[in-house]
Amino acid sequence: MSNDAATGTPTLDGPQQEPPAHGLGASLPPADARAKTEGTFPYAADLWAEGLLWAAILRSPHPHARIVSIDTAAAAEMPGVRAVVTHEDVPGDSAYGRRIADRPVFASEVVRHHGEAIAAVAADHPDTARLAAAAIAVEYEVLDPVTDPEKAFAAEPLHPDGNLIRHIPLRYGDPDITGEVVVEGLYRIGRQDPAPIGAEAGLAVPRPDGGVEIYTASTDPHTDRDLAAACFGLEPDRVKIVVTGVPGATGDREDPGFQIPLGLLALRTGCPVKLAATREESFLGHAHRHPTLLRYRHHADAEGRLVKVEAQILLDAGAYADASSESLAAAVAFACGPYVVPHAFIEGWAVRTNNPPSGHVRGEGAMQVCAAYEGQMDKLAAKLGVEPAELRLRNVLATGDILPTSQTVTCPAPVAELLRSVRDFPLPPLPKDTPEAAWLLPGGPEGAGEPGAVRRGVGYALGMVHMLGAEGADEVSTATVKVHDGVATVICAAVETGQGFATLARQIVQETLGIEEVHVASVDTDQPPAGPAAHGRHTWVSGGAVERAAKMVRTQLLQPLAHKFGMSTELLQITDGKITSYDGVLSTTVTEAMDGKELWATAQCRPHPTEPLDASGQGDAFVGLAFCAIRAVVDVDIELGSVRVVEMAVAQDVGRVLNPAQLATRIEAGVTQGIGTALTENLRTTRGVVRRPDLTGYALPTSLDAPDIRIVKLVEERDVVAPFGAKPASAAPVVTSPAAVASAVRAATGRPISRLPIRPQAAVAAVPSGS
Q1: Which domain of life is it from (predicted)?
Q2: CB-based burial label for 39 (10 Å; 0-12, 13-18, 19+)
Q3: How many CB atoms lie within 10 A of CB 144?
Q4: How confident is the model over 26-73, as pLDDT tens digits?
Q5: Measured CA distances, 65 to 158, 215, 269 (Å)
Q6: If 0-12 CB within 10 Å is exposed, 13-18 middle and 19+ buried, where does residue 592 land?
Q7: With bands split at pLDDT 50, 70 and 90, how would you rate the model's confidence at 5?
Q8: What average pLDDT does range 90-100 have in this prediction?
Q9: Which of 455, 515, 509 is nearest to 485 (CA)?
Q10: What string of DSSP letters covers 33-44?
Q11: Mean pLDDT, range 372-399, rounded to an integer
């Protein structure tokens, strides 16, 4: 696929054909689009129950302190207060964690980050609950916080497990080899918040059997259930997670820290309890992208071909481990980028500090190193006097090449094709010396800039991400397809987070069974598990399970007809609700063939296994890879340092286009999120205390900040091991676009941009504007 030069809309290369009305390849609209537009989408914050109580959580004002005492008497005696719970009231496990159970439900002896939960209150009115939480008297002995991850190695342990979460020393090739040309760089990546559209909310309802049901926007309900049940001291089958409408997620919905206090309060009071977090609580409570410090040294020969890459990567995990081990593995494995590097020596660490917690955010690990290795490629190009795109082309990875982890790239890797596509795409026209529209200036119509101080820059970046879980993660999903009275129903616990799984499931069944009306059941933990919504796994694993189940139903449908006419089912096809044979003898409708019967089948999909990285960072750790190339065009006011992104040209390796409109939307959203990382988004802290945890202090890009996004090429080279051959779409542009913007700002200013987000003082050119 490519795009129309005028509109940026994806179009098929070659002869144009009418897109199908349904099934794979159709631009089927999302099933929830109308509900979201009309305001009837079932968000957790809208839920209600008879006898409802309201919850509030008391959070620490300190990033590091010893808890001397907690006095809940004043709060408990307030009229309308029904329960107050602290660490003493947790009947089961006192700590939880998806990978390492190191995060307490409520802090007991030590507070390890600003905003950590201390206690929770249930009351008959939300204001009463908040007042009661504020009335809890906590005596703290304030301790010096450890906020510099480099100092965490020598600091006193912040946790019984120590400050070092993981160390990966990757060793590949000859450590003594050197290149004719060497460039070095130090890079810093800030703390990005997922900033969910709707803040966290949930409703817990006690059950007659002593269990509890929790209604919330979970993206991994079965894991959330198991963690909650362990803290409640209950068997998992006595805890049920019902997934409400998810207003979009990029990893921010994975923290069960809101759900567990809710369940405890419901079990304590015997009443339904609801919590709707404020935006401030949302910023303080959930995980953020890992702030990262990266030191790089690139060696190349005189022609610019890479010889060796050396790097040190330090991830700030904040107070608890969460997904830091997985993020570090991705950062170390992809530290050299989609380039052929015969020798690589990478040291990676993830450490605990008293900063806000870090965890899974789309493109974790890969985004941080992309900004650094692409900065190095720009430095190398400048030192050699080679065009940045040309230097990259001399080093790009291809199918059959070997990663520094010793894993062979067996999937399609059309990196050179992607880069050439964005390089050769026509550049946007230059603005006039005096723009007629003031909003075309960097800084917008209220900016103080002058047109004569504006410089244009063009930059490039290549990014890569892994698909599914890594390092031996057991990726499996189960789905059931039922057909009755001409209507199909898909039952699968894959949560629709905005990635389009519910729409894809409908398309798969339409394609396989020729049934147009397909419904996707709501998700809860009574269904078999499908795993978390991350790394494109639901397109691959859950979509694969739906496809297998639908094919089993198809066989059930066609076998009687094939037997009757003395042929195999392979000689029958289903198109637009009609069943026909290869010779035209048989022609009937799916409804007639069903003859009132109900058909159903359940199937699983499990990709080929992976293995953990060994002591030297070697191993086949990833199921598959996806690649992206972006060319950024920016205008920079070199006196004020303000930046306007003019255009982002994107070429992406997608395997197969399953829904053109949905795919374009995912890419555009990913690019825009990456622009936020590059220019505005940074959750700032002062000695561990979050500064202005709201959407005025944390600047998200708006529609006015979004540039023209041109989808130049979508390479449809199918991955043979993936169902449908498709690859994940949204993480790759998130990873690549910040590096591309930084590269373009370097080109415009001549400054060594080495920190994200880019601060205005870093974008002020080194030369006077009149020179």
Answers
A1: Bacteria
A2: exposed
A3: 12
A4: 888 887 778 878 888 878 888 899 999 999 999 999 999 999 999 999
A5: 11, 33, 31
A6: exposed
A7: very low
A8: 91
A9: 515
A10: HHHHHHT---BG
A11: 97
- What single-letter DSSP state applies at residue 256? T
Nearest to 249 by CA among 761, 673, 701, 547: 673
Structure tokens at 107: 């802090």
Q: According to the per-residue pLDDT averaged within each range, which of 327-341, 438-452, 709-723 is highest?
A: 327-341
pLDDT band at 11 (very low <50, low <70, confident <90, very high): very low
Least confident window among 164-168, 442-446, 572-576, 716-720: 442-446
On whether the CB atoms of residues 631 and 422 are closer than 8 A, the answer is yes
Cβ-based neighbour number of residue 321 at 10 Å: 24
Flag whether pLDDT at 763 surpasses 50: yes
- Highest mean pLDDT, choosing among 97-111, 112-126, 439-453: 112-126
Quote the CA–CA distance of 228 and 255 in Å, as a whole number: 11
Return the pLDDT at 19.
60
Pick the closest to residue 312 from 216, 187, 201, 476 (CA basis): 187
Highest mean pLDDT among 132-146, 187-201, 356-370, 442-456: 132-146
Sign of CA dihedral 656, 657, 662, 667: positive
Q: How far apart are CA 150 and CA 144, in angstroms?
A: 16
- Residue 439 has phi, psi (to 5 degrees) of -70, -10
Going by C-alpha positions, the residue among 735, 699, 650 that lies closest to residue 363 is 735
Conformation bin of residue 356: beta by default, left when phi > 0, alpha when psi is -120 to 50: beta
3-class secondary structure, 250 = coil
Closest to 506 in 3D by CA, of 488, 493, 492: 488
Query: What would the two tokens of residue 677 be?
Result: 């990382």
Answer with the residue of higher pLDDT: 731 or 21.
Answer: 731
* Separation between Cα atoms, residue 151 and residue 166, nearest integer Å: 16
Distances from the Cα of 500 to the Cαs of 147, 584, 715, in angstroms?
39, 37, 20
How far apart are the C-alpha atoms of 460 and 415, rounded to whole Å?
13
Name residue 689's beta-bridge partners.
686
CA angle at residue 299 from 295 to 300, to 5 degrees? 145
Distance of CA 258 to the CA centre of its chain: 20
> How far is it, in rounded angstroms, from Cα 107 to Cα 94?
9
- Contact status, residue 115 vs residue 250, Cβ threshold 8 Å: no
Report the C-alpha gap between 204 and 267 in whole angstroms: 9
Burial 650-667 (b: 16+ CB within 10 A, else e): bbbbbbbbbbbbbbbbbb
- Burial string for 551-567 (b: 16+ CB within 10 Å, else e) reads bbbbebbbeebbeeeeb
Instruction: Find the DSSP H helices in 460-619.
Output: 501-513, 537, 543-565, 590-594
Give the pair of three-digit tokens for residue 369.
């190193």
Looking at residue 6, its pLDDT comes to 39
Which helix H or strand E contains 324, and what residues bound it? helix 324-333
Q: Nearest CA to 348 among 171, 142, 607?
A: 171
Work out whether strand 487-492 and strand 518-520 pair parallel, antiparallel, or are unpaired: parallel
Amino acid at 708: D
Instruction: Provide the strand spans (E) within 638-715.
Output: 643-653, 685-686, 689-690, 708-715
Q: What is the pLDDT of residues 719-734, one digit of tens each?
A: 888 888 888 888 999 9
In degrees and rounded to multiples of 5, residue 414 shows phi and psi of: -85, 55
Cα of first residue to Cα of last residue in the chain, in angstroms, is 43
Q: What single-letter DSSP state applies at residue 557?
A: H
Q: Are the C-beta atoms of 3 and 712 separated by less than 8 Å?
A: yes
pLDDT tens digit sequence for 153-195: 999 999 999 999 999 999 999 999 999 999 999 999 999 988 8
